[in-house]
Amino acid sequence: MDFDYFYGQQADLFSFYRVPKVLFTNERFWNVSTDAKLLYGILLDRMNLSAKNGWLDKAGRVYIIFTIDEIRESLGCSEQKAIKTLAELEKKCGLVEKKRQGLGKPNLLYVKNFSTGAVDTQFKNNENHCSGATKNTVPELHISQGNNTDIKNTEFSDNYPILSSEESGKEVDGREKYWEYYDYFFEQLEFKHLLENNPYDREMLNNILDLIIETMCSNRKMIRIASDDKPIEIVRSRFMKLDSGHIEYVLGCIKENTTKVRNIKQYLLATVFNAPTTMDSYYDTLVRHDMANGFPNARR
Description:
The chain is mostly helical. 48% of the residues lie in helices and 5% in strands. The chain has eleven helices and four strands; from the N terminus they run H-H-H-H-E-E-H-H-H-H-E-E-H-H-H. It has helices at residues 22-25, 34-52, 68-75, 79-92, 118-128, 175-188, 191-197, 202-216, 232-240, 244-256, 264-292, and strands spanning 96-99, 108-111, 222-225, 228-231. The longest helix has 29 residues, at 264-292. The chain starts with 21 loop residues before the first helix and ends in an 8-residue tail after the last helix. The model is unreliable at 117-173 and 282-292 (pLDDT under 50).
């Protein structure tokens, strides 16, 4: 197919996604993939529409709703790639903050301002260079990873930590370890098939995957699970044994729970941690129940 040339100002006739040049020139973003940078430009474009439509939270911050399916269609990629690209913007460079609304509802996305801190940085640098050539200043980015998660009959509280208070103040490992665990668990848990088999539970599945990886990356020596402090190595060892069946079991526990859960993050962590030891006994109980009611071959 032959395409014609541009003449004069014809290029102005088209609409374009605007990807900030700083994402390609600033060393802060050198480890961010081109797909993630393009997605950021697409999300910025959607931000303009949200602002015009008055999509603001109580603090006046603009948010958008852009599902994994929309990302997949926009980038022309697989669902796995769409999930990973969005996670890269959120976890790797903090350009996106995700707020979960609850089971069955799409996430709210806050697209972060890539130029945050640029004015202050430039002002301070100019004070230090009264004459001669000045060094190029670069914008600073404040990474925020606060995510709130709500599911039916639950309330989330960020003030009820997963990690032991005795070990508070320590940071998690670097971004590279996050992606190593992400790749491992995506394959180990057969996450693509979990998403396909549970289309209405995608947000919860992503919550579970995030929780597993963040726990694996922790530098803390103790992890609080169901009010008990567990050595991190024991927790990691248990998590490494997880498979898709355990995650299906966790989803079942969430759906069957009828009591009010004060902290969804703690509840999920305890359920995932105990899944390898409680799943078999749970299903054995169901089998005995079914046999007693005349269904000897019934088993979930």
